Amino acid sequence: MSDLTPTPERPGLHIAAPTRTTPARGSAVCHCGASAKATGDSQVKALVDGWTANHGPTHGGATQ
Prior knowledge:
Layout: E1 12-16, E2 25-29, E3 35-39, H1 41-54
Antiparallel strand pairs: 1-2, 2-3
């Protein structure tokens, strides 16, 4: 599988939780230049909420 991590050339949101015991991880890059990373369920949820409210869909960008 190819790397799904967002980059400035491929903005988006990527969330992963490989196992039940592994903390969730997330990363986001917006075409406006903003980027963020998070680890842990609550931090990843905050990342997704912030992305949804302020970046990807708000700017008309796509999410992964």
